[in-house]
Amino acid sequence: MITWRPVAIFAAVLVTLPAWPWPWLGLLVALILTTALAVVDITLAPSPARVTMWRTGGTTLRLGGSVDVTLHLRNDGDQPIRGLVRDAWTPSAGSSNEKYEIDLPAGSTATMTTTLTPLRRGDRSAVRVTVRSYGPFRFGYRQTGHATADRLTPPWSVRVLPPFHARKHLPEKLARLRVVEGTVARRGRGQGTEFDALREYVPGDDVRSIDWRSSARSSSIVVKNWRVERDRRVLSIIDCGRTSAVRVGDEPRLDAQIEACLLLSTVASYAGDRVDALAIDTQVRAAVDGGSRKNVVPRIITALAPLQPSLVETDFGLVVGEVLRRESKRALVVLFSSLDPGAITESLLPALPQLSARHKVVIATVTDPRIEQLRSSRGSLNSLYRAAAAEQYLLERRKVAAALARYDVDVIEAGTDTFASSVVDRYLALKASGRL
Fold it and tell me: Is 104 exposed, middle or buried (CB count within 10 Å of its CB: 0-12, 13-18, 19+)?
């Protein structure tokens, strides 16, 4: 390949041709000379394939942050390489720079650091490193083809984790958890749901806690001491089907579901409960078993990061089957999905009795603020039709919620700003009442 230099020389000759005695002969001589120089320069250019590459740098970050990835090049040839290197990444990786000039003597090593500021969560991979080697006069160059470049390019991927904006609710939720567990003082005396031990009655104890049989055998009044439930199971299921691709507010429904799942998993792990997570549509996309309870929340974050909506109808029969297969003991099952009448009535409701008989089921859905806006608009005839359609949609959702309530299924509906907080509030209320 040639650069702009021989073209510029040939253009300069064309400008001066009218002053030549034999213009056509001069044009032929100029063409031959520039072509010969370009061919010689390309021939003298070192082979760009005589380069070894490897990478170092970060592999994970949260969405909104930045990470540096360094590309190392070593010249394994016996000639210096002067040219350009293009380190291409996927567009959503947010690469700060892709082209670098190099002057690499034989046997030496150069480094090029690229700062990535990803625009989306998930895995962002390096695409291809292309090396261009110029000749001595920079009239021509040799460049690695696609096949050679793919062979030389060192693989590297950066996993962009969810931003977890809902962690701002953690201090308040953990404070409420401590109140539920009785580790901080509060007005009035509450009681847990699991028997702990017997002790003597003190003024202020609930008379309903008196153990009359033990008191009859003792010289004092004896009461039962209770503690809050611990070591329970919490299973979060994220619906990755077509409804998760709907944008609610400024983000897809799937992102709001992931935020709520992370907040619930964090609070439940602090409470000493076993936390599991599933992402599913027509197949299991991600699964985290919290049996070891070590670093379960970081493992959930890493597993959910690459999730993307699938344009398929979620198989709720598969969802129920996976829950029954994985959870042999009673658990709190939180299904992050939508109250889509078709999918719920046709796929979930037939299998729901078997699921609700063994587990406590909660369905959490993010509401779209535009539905309420359309419902309240009355400015024109078109807006009236939209309001009627929105009202019909909400009526169908209420029917679905009523059908789910007949199977003792709790339904949570909230906007994106309060969705994660509402889910954890329901978990704490169930925990305090001993219904897990």
Answer: buried
User: What are 104's strand-pairing partners?
Assistant: 81
Structure tokens at 410: 């709790």
Q: Quick check: 135 and 36 in contact, CB under 8 A?
A: no
Cα separation of 372 and 108, whole Å?
65
- 366 close to 350: Cβ distance less than 8 angstroms: no
Taken in order 123, 124, 129, 130, is the CA torsion positive or negative?
positive
Bridge partners, residue 68, by sequence? 115
Residues 167-198 pLDDT 10s: 999 999 999 988 887 644 343 344 455 555 67
- Among 335, 336, 327, 263, CA closest to 297: 263
**Owner of token pair 């919620």:** 401
Residue tagged 């009218």 (tokens): 18
Contact 321, 350 (CB under 8 A): no
Show Cβ contacts of residue 68 under 8 Å, excluding neighbours closer than 6 positions: 57, 58, 113, 114, 115, 116
Query: Residue 275's beta-bridge partner residues?
Result: 234
CA distance 426 to 405: 15
Q: Which residues contact 250 (CB under 8 A, 6 or more apart)?
A: 416
Specify whether the CB–CB gap between 255 and 166 falls below 8 A. Answer: no
Cα–Cα distance, 195 to 193 (Å, whole number): 7
pLDDT tens, residue by residue, 117-154? 999 999 999 999 999 998 887 778 889 989 999 999 99
- How far is the C-alpha of 245 from the C-alpha of 242, rounded, in Å? 6
Pairing, β 194-200 against β 67-75: unpaired
